Amino acid sequence: MGRSVLLVEDEMMIAWDIEQTLTHAGMRVLGPASSVSRALRLIEGEVPDAAILDLNLRGELVTPVARRLRELEVPFVLATAYNHLRSGELEFDGVENLGKPVASERCVAVLGEMLA
């Protein structure tokens, strides 16, 4: 199997769609994690090669996961419908947002660039 990608998404249909896209592209998916605590447990068990993060997990911001990924030097992208982030969210500076719905080709292309 290919490189590992942590998927943090609380909407199961969206998570399933992204997981299928990544699997078909030869990547191995960690998760999907639908909460910050689950995502952090997955990271402690295995450091992924990259990650896709939904910003808002049922009212809980994914910031602690982003912070931990930065500490581990794991590249990540956001997959969120939010157009802008609050100022002061340094964990997300320079992070690309795939938007929602996530376009399969763009998702694979962006992750391919991050993992190259």
UniProtKB/TrEMBL annotation:
Highest taxon, organism lineage: Bacteria
Post-translational modification 4-aspartylphosphate, affected residues: D54
Key words of the record: Phosphoprotein
SUPFAM superfamilies: CheY-like
InterPro entries from the UniProt entry: CheY-like_superfamily, Sig_transdc_resp-reg_receiver
PROSITE patterns: RESPONSE_REGULATORY
GO BP terms in the entry: phosphorelay signal transduction system
Entry-linked Gene3D superfamilies: 3.40.50.2300
Domain Response regulatory per the UniProt entry, residue ranges: 4-115
Protein name according to UniProt: Response regulator
